[in-house]
Amino acid sequence: MVETEDYRISFFRPTTHRARLNRNLTVKLFIAWAVAIFGFQILLRIIEKPVPEEGLISFSAAWEKIETGAAEITDYQAAARPIVQVLGKSSLKDSEYEALKDALGWIVAQLMPDDELNELQKEVIHLNLLRNQITSLKDDGYIKSKEVVGLKAGSALGLENGSLLALLLPLGLDNDMAHVSPENKMKVSGILSTYMIHNRSFLTDTILLGFPFHYFYTAVFLLIFFIGLCWFYCYRTDRVHARLNFTEQTT
Q1: Which helix (H) or strand (E) element contains residue 197?
Q2: Which of 133, 205, 221, 249 is the most exposed place for a label (fewest CB within 10 A)?
């Protein structure tokens, strides 16, 4: 008879009592980890609701008046501000960017007398030409042209000079501000809805230690929780070893 030693170890089919205890503990901790991560994400999806930004609500009311021909100056201004805000997003598609620029320029044109609009249009064309020629955003001519456009167009939209929207405005004006294509005009509401409606719940609106709760939970709590699981595994393993009188052999 030839003696053989089988050193194969199976996590799912342990052959010793100690190995079974270790497997059960590992499975329980894995389930706790999975529930903490994926359970929270599932909960967020279940309770979240689409909530529009205040700017989108104002835009919708103003845009409805614009389309029916009953808009006043304040309505054009209220419609323009969210457009400028969304134009500052780097995730915009080229077609969306062009549609918003087309609509924004047309809105500005509705708020200015013809002579002032002509002067602004010249400045916008000059600014866009410089943008394609300069090698640095610190170019003095480019900066000056941008300031002139921002001041004139921002004044028409009621934007505070130096505000973020006023700084973004010059980059959102097209060379032809007097007209807007019907196709682009129809796209504006849908584009703004895409970027200004967010899924929210009390888990995202609650602030904890200066952070939204869902951010604190995923970025801070889950890290601490994982370290806690590691500590608990070591603690329970030591307890099991002590109960079973298990000692490691050292050479």
Answers
A1: strand 197-200
A2: 249
